[in-house]
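Weekly structure sync, notes
Attendees: PL (lead), two postdocs, one rotation student
Agenda item 3: pending single-chain targets
PL asked that the sequence for the first pending target be pasted directly into the notes so everyone works from the same version. It is reproduced below exactly as submitted, 406 residues in total.
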Amino acid sequence: MSQYFDELETRTADARAADLAKALPEQIARAKSLAGYSETFADVDPSSITSAADLVKLPVLRKSDLGKAQAANPPLGGFNAIPVSDFAHIFQSPGPIYEPGNTSHDWWSMGRAMHAAGFGADDIVQNCFAYHLTPAGMIFENAAKAVGAAVVPAGIGQTELQVQAAAAIGVTAYAGTPDYLKIILDKADEMGVTLNITKAAVGGGALFPSLRQEYADRGITCLQSYATADLGNIAYESASMEGMIVDESVIVEIVTPGTGLPVAEGEVGEVVVTTLNPDYPLIRFATGDLSAVLAGQSPCGRTNMRIKGWMGRADQTAKIKGMFVRPEQVAALVAKHDEIAKARVIATRSGEMDVMTVQIEAENGDADVYAKSVAETLKLKGQVEIVAPDSLPKDGIVIEDQRKYD
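Predicted structure, written out during the meeting:
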């Protein structure tokens, strides 16, 4: 297996800049022709945007903007450069926000991440990302095909059957959230079944050092990538595990939240991404995630910019069990029951697993009823604690992330 996925990963800075000077104006011109950008890009001269530094001239596109555009011009808000019928899939993420997907070679640009994690043509991958509505399952399946691996489309749940399948088929690799692999391994131990998984490519949540070490102790190399449903892959780890290398298909800026202005190298700011995907051009798309540029080049030989990885959210949105929980969802939960005065979501860890606790201010409430509403509105099951009126802090926080990321 070649050390690198393609020659783009090891370009010189001058070669990368020259390629970008050609590709970026073409992408801006493509975007300008679309209904989604017709107003905001009306006065933009694409030929003047030839580098990452030039992108600061353009407005930031936020997920809320995308949602409004999609509501007015369904399903993709006029940001698609090919007809909707030419996409293989249309997905739905919480919001709701709709994202397109295709099945052409490495369409999501996740192949580099899987290759860097050691996945190749000799592997059988148990893909435990969800396949229904949300795109993660198809993103990683597309990546596995890009590196020549076979795929078991497992999704999540039915853990005992997953263990049986992994053993019978001879699964060698795992793709999914960091936590779920532990559930499978623990179930295999309980069943007395030996699995042959030696590598894992994870995303959709933080990979805590203690969990990575537990996998290493089991003989499993676990590397993470950073991707979103809208953009595909943004950055990924290599075997050197020194930061995350920005993918060759995107341009990453780190900006002061709310301004779109770049921060100094090394400072924490919001991740803003411009994708070079010609089918779905997203220009200066604000992820809401925080990170920072990591100076220098990766020891693995890949030459693109590195970031320090996911460092929290610019807003109160939190990713729990691989799913985003947003303040507006908490507001919808409160609005669903007249007797609820306030609610607060708390994210913690227990036994290397995410735990979501929802504290609800209400008199004489029914925890079982609220638990059902939590699952419906937050799209996750969680523990429900009913607390006395006026007992929750008046600090404006509705989602409190108590997990430690160092």
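Discussion points:
- The CA atoms of residues 275 and 282 lie 6 Å apart.
- The longest helix spans residues 13-32.
Action: rotation student to compare against the earlier draft before next sync.
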